[in-house]
Amino acid sequence: MAAQSFNSRYQVIIILVSFALLMALGCTLYRVYTPWNLSHDQIYLGTFDAKAADPSLFNRDSAFHDDSFFSHYLPTFRQLLTFLRQLSGSFEAGLWLLVPILVFIYALGWGILLWRWHHSLWIALLFTFLAIPYRPAPFGEVWGVAGVEGMVARTLVTAPAPYLFLIFLSWLKEPRYWPAILLGCLTGLGAFIYPLTPLSYVELFAGLFLICHWRDKSTWGMLALMLMIFGVLAVYPGTLREQQAWAPGLGVSFDEFRNVVQTLFKIPDPWHSFQGNKLIRHLSLLIVVLAIFGGRYLFAAPDKKGRAALQLWLWGGLTVVYLCWRIVGKGAGLSWLYATLAVYVIFCFYRQQLQRQDWWLLGWGFVTLFIYLVSAYFMTVIWLHVEYVPLTTWVVEHRRVARLIHPFSYLMGAQAAVYLLPWISQVLRNSLTAVQVEYTLITLAMFNRTIFWVTVLAVSLFEAGRHWSRRYGPVLAGILWLTILAGGYFAGYVSVPGSQELFAPISTFWAFSPDYLKNEAELANWARQHTPKDALFYHQSAFFRYRARRSITHGHPTWGETGNYRTTAIVNLYHRSLKLQEAYKHPESLVQHAARLKADYIVIDKQEGVKLNLPLVFENQRFLVYQLQQR
Question: What pTM did the predictor assign?
């Protein structure tokens, strides 16, 4: 028996490693056959790297004329990118080198985690596959590692996440000091790459551990030790951007600075508006349900604790699932998965069969929502009334913790599949393997609405046909195949080209159309080949700046363009961008602004409908370039 068990584990390890290698190879080659562009973050990282490699670049640029814009921005990660560029020959190729490594680490970790959690190889493979692609979260965040287009600092600390979860769950099951020390060290060291995500991990671990073991005072020291180790290691990289000495400039009030940040992040004003602020509605629902059913459980008589716990599971679980779906799952195309979670919550309540793992997972979702909603709301309240600049980073960055909802949905989705499908197979009087195949087909189809409903209809017809008499069997079989063919044709030739890709269900990386980027790439290539290295372009595009290696007069008024500065620089850059972009509405003013800034060229989008009485030196389908002065 022992030898058989050993061989079984050995075979599982081989399968998981092989699957991780396959995913790494697939994700690496995927973009060879599909177009991709650098994301906003990668554009800025590439510009940082270009400036560091050649300090003479961008000397006349609005933001990159010196290194104060990026000198304190993720130095460890930038050093890694420099090494990869030197190794591979280009910034883009360096990003490619990260893809197979991180996908393999991440896929193998999820496979091991799910296998250890459920001892189901099918579950491990299916949900590992679901967990790999980039899935969007609020405020421009994503979760996943599948591809070069999202390969940034947070991806490096996302890849080892399943191993941290595995250590944490073992600590949750059996509180000991060594997992606490290990978690504190690993998350603290991860902060040197990207501080925010390790902080989110620690908050999740601390909150869930406290909920599960707060009555056991012997565990308090473990929790304190983990937090202390993380704090000691993370305090320097976590506050590095706040330590930067900002360039002097015209003084601005904190109110001016706050107004700019509110505009950039669309922070509602007034913040307490129940109608205008969705965050308050979500927070209120979570607190009300927790107060009612959590309070009922705490104050219930001993003989009624069990019933109160079941009610807390039902209504608390449905609330957590709904809020997680509303905040993250709906926008990521995961509605089918969250519908399964809701059914599972009701199923467990009906069966009155709850395991410790169920409460852990519910706690995971609750803690993630709590640290996201409560922190985002009350920190913003303080920031709106207290003039403390460093708090701005917490207000605008900490809300990204919502991305941890995705691993919650994968873990609980796997739990739901393990317990629901045997019951469904009994109801349908079908084999468990057949039901697993049907569930897999529906789950993999959920990212395209048309394909999803065609798959659901096909599975439903198949199941209905099995229970009808033989007389109608051939008729139903014909209807089934015709439905599949017709639906497949419609989905393939009508829906799919206009839908989102499986590996990136919702575009979170670039806001411009491929045609726009193609034309701007032509413009950038021309500028790089036919203009002086120190030429200044009256243009707003960070993409152009990076591709052309030329200075621009202003960038887009976004946090990516201004977020590495504080107060004075942010306000000045923001208003400068608005003023210079507004000048396109008045050709005379446009030329005057360009001349005052000593720009050499003016770039005009043809959609602006502006023409100038200046020498035209470049034109394509989208852009015109006028030369302002001879050099």
Answer: 0.87
